[in-house]
Amino acid sequence: MQNRGDRMPAKLTGVENILQQLNQTASQIDGQVKQEATKAGAEIYREAMAKQAPRSTHNGEHLADNIIITETKTGYAIGPTSKFYYAHFLEWGTSKMTPRPFAAPVFENNRAVVERTMSSILKRRLGL
Description:
The chain is mainly alpha-helical. Helix content is 53%, strand content 8%.
């Protein structure tokens, strides 16, 4: 009769390869899930910012119609297209114009909705 300490050693081959594949798959899924949740949050901010952005009385393009989401190395940026460069003057004001912020209030007022949306996506996609 063998003692439990006398077990025969087993050698597993290919385990390192399997673990490497699992880690790659996990990081791909992790990245995809994060990207999906972050993009959903960015879209909420974009829609709200477009509603809050000022519209001119002139016919043609408006700042509010040109709020976009741009993918960056670290996530997403939300704001007007470069054609509407003057948006930061509206947001922060100038020496001759008082600020008329539209972006900052959007981020403050929609933070809870974005957090709930992103959390819901993460939980659903990760099976939690």
